[in-house]
């Protein structure tokens, strides 16, 4: 009688790219879950950067300058990707085909076409690719979503999603920034995507978007500010602002429901104290007690998201932030751009193969497509 091989006590993980986001966020997350996952390999084309990372992570971490060589030699269970956005699709597909699950920095890809290629590779290999949207995983966000889902705050009616940050010309001096082919767009793709992903996570499916975008300051291919009006399937109407022109930087989500307003105000990460609940005048004094954020305070972080992914792996379930859930956020970005560049509303599900905004966020619009 044959006996199935026991599942390894710890998953074997590899990182691709060893720059600031990996060393500063992914490595601490891996260390926080060291009882469940071990870092066994690192990939970077820059040998000096790779060496510096191994000095930080430990010499036992195998070093590779090529992804394919690492995948062939190591066969990791999990690959964490922290490279520039233009590399995400190719590297994610390669890791999925090699049998690994993937946790990739945002944006997971630069178009709906690229997302569908990733999804097809995942389905064929029986693996999964999740995108890093760590703001979903703080205890405050988990609690707010549960309250909204249970109807504790009443029906959501009005929402505001604000990412008003500031980036100067030095920021865009990095060669891959500000270009469609390497970054996928402006703050709609590279900055505000964290907040509106959280808004979508809290409110569910959207049905229509009407948007505007501008290139007001920076000499980039994409926008440096965008705004949108959004209708959700549950009837909620929302505004979205994505900016890199705002001296007073803030990230904010506000949802006005029938019985309460819930507000999140932070910058790059939140904890329980950043969430505020304000009851409507008609609400009895007893009800708000149930709205208080949990006693345990789990900040939004890569550590929190990695924990959720490991839970899913151990259960053999689709991880959060993957599949149709992740596609919804990519489709929202594509639809915002299409509406802004064409001047008309865009409906969910409208952008399909054959639509110019399916393979590229700029949609080959003459005023916005890459300069030749």
SSE blueprint:
Blueprint: E1 11-16, H1 20-32, E2 37-43, H2 47-57, E3 62-64, H3 67-74, E4 78-81, H4 88-97, E5 101-104, H5 112-125, E6 129-131, H6 139-150, E7 156-166, H7 180-183, H8 187-190, H9 193-203, E8 206-214, E9 225-232, E10 237-243, E11 245-257, E12 260-266, E13 275-279, H10 302-315, H11 323-342, E14 346-347
Parallel strand pairs: 1-2, 1-4, 2-3, 4-5, 5-6, 7-10
Antiparallel strand pairs: 7-11, 8-9, 8-14, 9-10, 11-12, 12-13
Description:
- By secondary structure, this protein is α/β, with parallel strands linked by helices.
- The chain has two domains: 11-132, NAD(P)-binding Rossmann-like Domain (Rossmann fold, 3-Layer(aba) Sandwich), CATH 3.40.50; 135-301 and 322-347, Dihydrodipicolinate Reductase, domain 2, CATH 3.30.360.10.
- 33% of the residues lie in helices and 24% in strands.
- The strands form two sheets. An eight-stranded mixed sheet has the order 13-12-11-7-10-9-8-14. Strands 3-2-1-4-5-6 form a six-stranded parallel sheet, with helices on both faces.
- The model is unreliable at 1-6 (pLDDT under 50).
- Residues 11-131 form the Gfo/Idh/MocA-like oxidoreductase N-terminal domain.
- InterPro entries: Gfo/Idh/MocA-like_OxRdtase_N, Gfo/Idh/MocA_Oxidoreductase, GFO_IDH_MocA-like_dom.
